[in-house]
Design a protein that fits this description.
The complex is a heterotrimer of chains A (308), B (324) and C (558). Chain A is mostly helical and 308 residues long. Chain A is globular. The two termini of chain A are 43 Å apart. The relative contact order of chain A is 0.14. Chain B has 324 residues and is an all-alpha fold. Chain B folds into two domains: 72 residues; 231 residues, MetI-like fold. Chain B has 13 helices and no strands. In chain B, helix 4 runs antiparallel to helix 5 and helix 12 packs across helix 13. Chain C is an alpha+beta fold. Chain C has 16 helices and 21 strands. In chain C, strands 11, 12, 15, 18, 19, 20 and 21 form a seven-stranded mixed β-sheet that branches. The chains are: A mainly alpha (308), B mainly alpha (324), C alpha+beta (558). Chains in contact: A-B, A-C, B-C.
C-alpha cells in the first residue's frame, strides 16, 4: 500500500467519524435520538457502517490495485500480509485488501438494493393487507405463510438450478423477492392497530381514498418497524449472498463479493488462511454493526419496549 | 382449544400443499417434463417409461398435477436422475442425519444460550455483560459456513482433534451398532453441531437476557428478593421459570435457522443430510430430488412452528383465550 | 455445592471412564495374518456406472480394473508394440495363426463370481458390445481395426484384423474388459448406460462388488478364490469427495489411506512432512487443455460463431502465457505440453513446434481481423457482437477451477470477456458430449500409446464421443494413420506424429495447458505399493499390509 492509500484510508475514517458526529448532533435534539445514542454499541456500529460505506465509495483511492488484477501469479500468489499487501494476496495473486474494499461495493450494494426491493414490497403488501382486511388480508397472509415455510436459501438454490446462469441484477432481484414476507407481516400488524386510531378514521371520514390514507396517514406512522427490519435485512442478505457464492451459485467470478472471496480462498485455507479469513471477518463486522444499529433503532423508535 | 388446534393443523396442511403446488409448477414452467425430447439431461429409457406411467408425462398438465399429488400422498416423490433410486429412499436416509445435527445444535444452542443469557442478566450493564454481549453479537453475525471453515481448519486440520468431515468411520462403523460407534458418531458430530449451535446460541443469549431483565423488574421477583431469598435462587427459580415462556417461541424460530444453516454446514463438513443432498442435487440438476427436499424442508418448518404454537398454548393460557 | 477442585476431579473421572469405554469397545480381535487389510481411497468424482464400455470416467476405470479382467495386460515396461511384453490375464496363452489372425486360449480356472466359467462366448459378446453403435462406447474407435471376433471352442477365441500393424495385439487386449454375457445379454443395448447391472456388477477379477452408497462410497471385497492369486488387501473402499482438495485433506487427516494425485506443490509438501504417509511419484498420464468448440453450441452442423474462425483461435492460444499459469497451479509438478499429449507418451518432445506466447501479436491479430473495442468497455467487439464466450468447468476439479480464474484474467487483458460455467462433473460430462458449450477445460487420462489415445479425441473417429470440440483436419488424420502403421519403426513414426501434432498446433483447436507429473500418497503401513502410470490402481491386488502393521481398521470384521 502506498502512502496515498494510507492517507485515503485515514481520510475515510475521518469522514466516517465526522458523519457519526454530525448525525449525533442533529438527532440528539429529539428524545428518540438520545435514546439511540444511549445504546452502548450504536455509535460504534454507526461508525463501522459509515467507514465501510466511505471506503466503498472511495475504493479506487484506498485500494492500491484493481480488484481483478492478478499481480504476479508465479511469485506473489498466497503472499502473507506485509507492508505492500496489508491483508496478503489470494491464490490468484490478487491483493486481498483491494478486493475487500471493492467487494464492499458489491456486497453492501447487493444488500442495500435487495433489501430495498424486499422492504418496498413487504411494506406495500403488509399495508394493503392490514388496511383492507377480510379476504385480501386472508389471501395475502396465507401467501406469506407459504413464503415463510420455504427456507430462503432453498428458494434461491431452486431458482439458480432452474436457469442455467443468472445475471447479477436478476440475482439481486430474486433475493429481494424472497425477502419481504417477514416485513409484510410486521407492517400488517402495525397497520391493523393504526387503522382504528382516530386520525385515520378522520381521514377516511373526510373522504380520502384508500391509496391516500395508506400512503399519507398509515405508512409514515409505521416507518419505525420498517426501518428496523431494513437494517436487519441488509445483514441477512449479505449472509445469504455469502452462502450462495460459497456454493458457487452467487455472484459470478471474478467480481470480488465478500462471499466470492471466501469461496476463492478456502481451497488454499491451509497455506493462505488470510484470503478467506478477512472477508469472513468483514462480513461478520458489518452484519454486527447493522444488528447493533438495528437494535438501537428499535429501542429508540419504540419507547414501549426497552431492553436495557 | 380443540377447535383452535384443528384450525391450526388445517392451515399447516394447506401451506404444505401450496408449497407442493408451487414447486410442481415452477419446475414444469422452467423445465418441462423430465423425459421430453429437448431434455438436456435425459433419463434412461426404462426409468423414463416407469416415470411416464406413474406421473403421466404425456398427458395434460392438470392430469400430471393430480397424478403428482396422488403419488405424493403415497410418499412417492419420483426417481432421482443421479442417485438411481427413488427420491423418497434418498430422503429417508438423509433426514435422520439432518435431525441428529439439528438436535445436537439445538442442545448446544439452548444450553449455552440460556446460561449466557442468565449470566448476562444477572450482571446486567456490568463489564462481563457488555463484553459477552458484544462477543455474542459478533458470533451471531458470522456467516455460518465461514465459522465452520475456520473451526475445520483449526480443530480438524491443525490440531487434528476432530475428523475433517463425514458422519462415521466408513470402515469401523458403517452402522451405529455399538457404543464405540456411537462415540465415533458423536465425535464426527461435534464440529458441525458446534458451528451451528454457537451461532444460534449467540442469538438465544441476547433474547434470553432481555426476557430475564423483563421478568426481574416485576413485582413477584422483588417480593422474592424481599423475602430474603438468595439471589441465585431468585434468578434460577423465580425469574427463569417465567422468562422461559418466550423461549418456546424461540424453539420454533430456531428450527428454520438450523435447517437453513444445515444446507451450508452439511456441505462444509460432508455431512450426508438433506442439505447436502439438496445442494448436490441442485448442482447435478436432479430436479426430483430438489423438489422433494424443498417439500420436506418446508414441512419440517411448518411442523416446527406448529409444535411451538401448541407448546406455547399449553404453557400460557392467555393464548388459548385469544385463539379460541 | 461442588467446589472447583471437586469439579475438576469429576471431569477427570468422566474423561477416564470415557477412555476405558473406548478401549473396551475397540476390536482387538478380528482378522490377522497376510490377507487382512483395508484400503480407503479418497477420490474426487464418482463413477456414473460400473460398466466399462459405458463410462469414460477415470474413477470408473480404477474400480472396474479390480472387477473385470482383460485378456492380457500391459507389462512393467509399458511397451505396446508386439506381444512380448504383455502378461497373461484371462488368456493363459495366445498364438498367431496368420499375420492378421490372433488366437487366445482362455484360462480354464477363470470364473464369474456368480459361478459360471468365463468362456470364449463372453469374449465375442464383449467385442460385439464395444462396437455396438447403440452402446456408443468411447473405446469403439480404438478397436476399429478388429474385423471380427469368433469362438473356436468354449475356451478358444479368434481375433481377425483388417490389416497388420505394430500395435494390433495391444488393441486386441487393452481396451476391452471381458463382460459376463449371461448377465448382460438380455439388457437392451440402448440401456447400457443405466442398467441395474452397472450399479451392482458381477465380475471375474480379484475383487467382487459389495456395496455402492450413492454420493458416499463404493466397497469391494477380495475374492479369496481368485485364480491368479488371492489379493492381499481384504477390502478396498473408494470414498467420494466433492473435489480433489477435499480428498487430499481427508488423506492428511488420516480419514483415507491413498489418493491418486496430490495435485499442488503445497499438498506434496504437507504429505511429505506427514510421518504416516509415503509419496510415490510416477509419470503422469494426464493432460489438460482449454478446448474450443468448433461447431455451434448445441448444433453440430453449423460452425461456432467465434471458434469456427481459425485466426481467432490462434490469437487466443498466443495470448495465453501457459508457463506462468502452470507455475501458479502446479509449481514444478507438471510441464507445458507441446501439443495434445501426456508425459507418458513416447512421442513427448519439447521441440515440437507450436504457437508462441506473444500477447502483443495476439492483440494485433485480433485487431487486424476486426475485433476492436469500439465502445470502450474493455471488451473487443465486431459488428456489434462482443468477443465474449462461456468457459465450461467442472466443480469437482480444484485445478480446473483455478485455471479458469487465471485464464479469465489472462483473456481480459487482451480484451476478451470470459464468463465461467461451473457445473457438477456429471453435467459437465453430458454437456461436453452433447457439444453444448463454447469452450471447456478438459483433462484426459491417456492410453499408454498415442496410437489409440490420439484418434479418440482429435480425429473424426471421436465425433459424438471424446472429440468434444469436433476438430477435424484430413492432413492430421492421414499423418496419424501413417504413424500408427509405422509404430514399430520409431524414427518413422516419430516423424509422422510430429507432423500431425504440428499441423494440429497450427490449427489451434485448444490451448494445451498442462501435462501432469503425478505424485500419489499412500499410508506407510501399506507395502509393495506399485503404480502403473497408465492406470494407477491396476496393480492394486499386489499391494499388502504386513501382519505387524495391521490397525483396527484392517482387523475389523463386518
Amino acid at each position: 500500500m502506498s502512502l496515498w492509500n494510507w492517507l485515503a484510508l485515514g481520510g475515510a475514517a475521518v469522514v466516517a467519524l465526522a458523519a457519526v458526529a454530525q448525525i449525533r448532533r442533529r438527532v440528539t435534539a429529539a428524545a428518540a435520538g438520545r435514546r439511540f445514542f444511549r445504546h452502548p454499541t450504536a455509535a460504534a456500529g454507526l461508525f463501522v457502517l459509515a467507514f465501510v460505506v466511505s471506503l466503498a465509495l472511495a475504493a479506487p483511492l484506498v485500494a492500491p490495485y484493481r480488484p481483478f488484477v492478478q499481480i504476479d501469479i508465479t511469485r506473489l500468489a498466497n503472499h502473507a500480509p506485509s507492508a505492500q499487501f496489508v491483508l496478503g494476496t489470494d491464490p490468484y495473486a490478487r491483493d486481498v485488501w483491494s478486493r475487500l474494499v471493492f467487494g464492499a461495493r458489491i456486497s453492501l450494494g447487493i444488500g442495500a438494493i435487495a433489501m430495498l426491493v424486499a422492504v418496498t414490497i413487504g411494506a406495500g403488501v403488509g399495508a394493503v393487507a392490514g388496511y383492507f382486511r377480510r379476504w385480501v388480508d386472508m389471501t395475502v397472509m396465507r401467501l406469506v405463510d407459504v413464503g415463510l415455510a420455504m427456507p430462503r436459501i432453498f428458494v434461491m438454490l431452486m431458482a439458480v438450478a432452474l436457469w442455467e446462469h443468472i445475471a447479477l441484477p436478476v440475482l439481486v432481484l430474486l433475493i429481494g423477492l424472497t425477502g419481504w414476507f417477514g416485513t409484510s407481516r410486521l407492517v400488517r400488524a402495525e397497520v391493523l392497530s393504526l387503522r382504528e386510531r382516530e386520525f385515520v378514521a378522520a381521514a377516511r371520514a373526510l373522504g380520502a381514498g384508500p391509496g391516500r390514507v395508506i400512503f399519507r396517514h398509515v405508512l409514515p406512522n409505521v416507518a419505525a418497524p420498517i426501518i428496523v427490519s431494513a437494517a436487519l435485512g441488509i445483514g441477512n442478505v449479505m449472509l445469504l449472498e455469502a452462502g450462495l457464492s460459497f456454493l458457487g451459485m452467487g455472484v459470478p467470478s471474478p467480481a470480488p463479493s465478500w462471499g466470492n472471496m471466501i469461496a476463492d480462498g478456502w481451497p488454499k485455507m491451509a497455506v493462505a488462511p488470510w484470503a478467506a479469513t478477512f472477508p469472513g471477518l468483514a462480513i461478520s463486522l458489518v452484519v454486527m454493526a447493522l444488528n447493533a444499529v438495528g437494535d438501537a433503532l428499535r429501542d429508540a423508535l419504540d419507547p414501549r419496549k426497552e431492553t436495557l | 382449544m380443540a377447535a383452535w388446534l384443528v384450525r391450526r393443523l388445517a392451515a399447516s396442511i394447506a401451506i404444505v400443499f401450496a408449497v407442493a403446488t408451487i414447486t410442481f409448477l415452477v419446475v414444469h414452467i422452467a423445465h418441462g417434463t423430465p423425459c421430453g425430447p429437448s431434455e438436456a439431461r435425459p433419463l434412461a429409457p426404462d426409468v423414463c417409461e416407469r416415470q411416464r406411467v406413474r406421473f403421466g408425462y404425456d398427458q395434460p398438465l392438470g392430469v400430471q398435477y393430480v397424478k403428482y399429488l396422488a403419488a405424493l400422498s403415497r410418499g412417492d416423490m419420483g426417481e432421482s436422475f443421479g442417485l438411481h433410486r427413488p427420491v423418497g429412499d434418498a430422503l429417508a436416509d438423509a433426514i435422520p442425519n439432518t435431525f441428529a445435527l439439528a438436535l445436537a445444535a439445538l442442545l448446544i444452542d439452548f444450553a449455552l444460550g440460556l446460561a449466557l443469557g442468565i449470566y448476562q442478566a444477572a450482571r446486567a450493564r456490568r463489564l462481563g455483560d457488555i463484553a459477552l454481549g458484544n462477543v455474542a453479537l459478533f458470533v451471531n453475525s458470522m456467516p455460518v459456513f465461514w465459522l465452520g471453515l475456520v473451526l475445520l481448519l483449526v480443530f480438524a486440520q491443525w490440531l487434528r482433534w476432530f475428523p475433517v468431515g463425514g458422519i462415521h468411520n466408513p470402515v469401523l462403523c458403517p452402522r451405529l451398532d455399538s457404543p464405540y460407534c456411537l462415540l465415533d458418531f458423536l465425535w464426527h458430530l461435534t464440529l458441525p453441531a458446534l458451528t451451528l449451535g454457537l451461532v444460534a446460541a449467540a442469538g438465544t443469549a441476547r433474547y434470553q437476557r432481555a426476557a430475564m431483565l423483563e421478568v426481574i423488574r416485576q413485582d413477584y421477583v422483588r417480593t422474592a428478593r424481599a423475602k430474603g431469598l438468595r439471589e441465585r435462587r431468585v434468578l434460577l427459580v423465580h425469574a427463569l421459570r417465567n422468562a422461559l415462556l418466550p423461549f418456546i417461541t424461540l424453539c420454533g424460530l430456531a428450527f428454520p435457522f438450523l435447517l437453513t444453516g444445515a444446507v451450508l454446514i452439511e456441505t462444509v463438513f460432508a455431512w450426508p443430510g438433506m442439505g447436502r443432498l439438496a445442494v448436490s442435487a441442485i448442482l447435478q440438476r436432479d430436479y426430483p430430488v430438489v423438489t422433494g427436499a424443498a417439500l420436506v424442508t418446508s414441512t419440517m418448518v411448518v411442523l416446527g412452528s406448529l409444535i411451538a404454537d401448541v407448546l406455547y398454548a399449553v404453557a400460557d393460557p392467555r393464548i388459548r383465550v385469544r385463539g379460541a | 455445592m461442588p467446589t472447583a477442585r471437586t469439579l475438576d476431579r469429576l471431569t477427570t473421572r468422566a474423561a477416564l471412564a470415557g477412555l476405558v469405554l473406548l478401549a473396551a469397545c475397540e476390536r482387538r480381535s478380528g482378522c490377522g495374518g497376510d490377507y487382512c487389510g483395508t484400503l480407503v481411497i479418497a477420490a474426487a468424482g464418482e463413477p456414473d456406472i460400473l460398466l466399462p464400455p459405458a463410462s469414460e470416467f477415470a474413477v470408473t476405470r480404477d474400480v472396474t480394473e479390480q472387477l473385470f479382467l482383460k485378456l492380457a495386460d500391459l507389462g512393467p515396461s509399458g511397451n505396446t508394440v508386439g506381444d512380448e511384453d504383455f502378461q497373461p490375464q484371462l488368456a493363459e496363452r495366445w498364438e498367431w495363426d496368420a499375420p492378421t489372425t490372433l488366437v487366445f486360449h482362455l484360462d480354464p480356472r477363470a470364473r464369474w463370481q456368480d459361478g459360471p466359467a468365463v468362456t470364449a462366448a463372453d469374449v465375442a459378446f464383449t467385442y460385439d458390445a464395444y462396437t455396438d453403435t447403440l452402446v456408443n462406447s468411447s473405446f469403439r474407435s480404438s478397436v476399429r481395426q478388429i474385423a471380427a471376433v469368433t469362438t473356436r471352442d468354449s475356451l478358444t477365441v479368434v481375433f481377425r484384423f483388417r490389416q497388420r500393424y505394430p500395435e494390433m495385439f495391444y488393441d486386441a487386449v487393452y481396451h476391452m474388459r471381458i463382460l459376463p454375457a449371461h448377465l448382460l445379454r438380455e439388457v437392451p443395448r440402448d440401456q447400457w448406460r443405466s442398467t441395474a447391472f452397472g450399479r451392482a456388477p458381477v465380475g471375474d477379477g480379484p475383487y467382487r462388488f459389495v456395496a455402492w452408497k450413492a454420493g458416499e462410497s463404493i466397497e469391494l471385497a477380495a475374492d479369496s478364490t481368485f485364480f491368479l492369486g488371492r489379493p492381499h488387501l481384504r477390502r478396498v473402499i473408494w470414498r467420494f469427495t466433492p473435489d480433489q482438495q477435499v480428498a487430499v485433506t481427508q488423506l492428511i487427516a488420516g480419514d483415507a489411506d491413498a489418493v491418486e494425485v496430490l495435485i499442488s506443490p503445497d499438498n506434496v509438501q504437507r504429505a511429505r512432512a506427514d510421518t504416516q504417509l509415503a509419496t510415490y511419484p510416477y509419470r503422469g498420464s494426464a493432460y489438460g487443455y482449454v478446448g474450443f468448440n468448433l461447431a455451434a453450441a448445441g448444433d453440430t452442423t453449423k460452425p461456432h460463431p467465434l471458434f469456427g474462425d481459425r485466426e481467432l483461435r490462434r490469437a487466443l492460444v498466443m495470448a495465453t502465457d501457459r508457463g506462468r499459469l502452470l507455475h501458479n497451479v502446479f509449481g514444478d509438478f507438471a510441464k507445458v505440453p507441446p501439443g495434445p499429449m501426456s508425459q507418458l507418451w513416447w512421442i513427448w518432445d519439447p521441440d515440437i513446434r507450436e504457437l508462441p506466447y506473444d500477447s502483443a501479436q495476439a492483440a494485433r491479430h485480433l485487431t487486424r481481423s476486426g475485433w476492436i473495442d469500439s465502445d470502450g468497455d474493455g471488451v473487443r467487439d465486431r459488428d456489434g457482437r462482443p468477443l465474449a464466450f462461456r468457459l465450461l468447468v467442472p466443480t469437482t476439479s480444484a485445478i480446473r477451477r483455478q485455471y479458469a480464474r487465471l485464464l479469465q484474467e489472462q483473456f481480459r487483458t487482451v480484451g476478451v470477456d470470459v464468463q465461467l460455467d461451473e457445473v457438477d462433473f456429471s453435467v459437465f460430462n453430458e454437456r461436453a458430449r452433447a457439444g453444448r458449450f463454447d469452450a471447456l477445460i478438459n483433462v484426459w487420462n491417456t492410453d499408454p500409446t498415442p496410437s489409440s489415445g490420439f484418434p479418440q479425441t482429435w480425429t473424426p473417429a471421436g465425433f459424438g464421443r471424446s472429440n468434444y470440440g469436433r476438430y477435424d483436419n484430413p492432413t492430421v488424420d492421414l499423418l496419424v494413420d501413417r504413424a500408427v502403421a509405422s509404430a514399430a519403426n520409431r524414427e518413422q513414426a516419430r516423424r509422422a506424429w510430429r507432423g500431425a501434432i504440428e499441423t494440429l498446433n497450427q490449427d489451434a483447436p485448444a490451448v494445451f495447458l498442462f501435462a501432469t507429473e503425478n505424485v500419489a500418497a499412500v499410508h506407510k503401513r501399506i507395502a509393495d505399493v506399485r503404480i502403473r502410470p497408465d492406470s494407477w490402481a491396476a496393480l492394486l491386488r499386489t499391494w499388502r499390509i504386513p501382519a505387524d502393521r495391521l490397525t483396527d481398521r484392517d482387523r475389523v470384521e463386518r
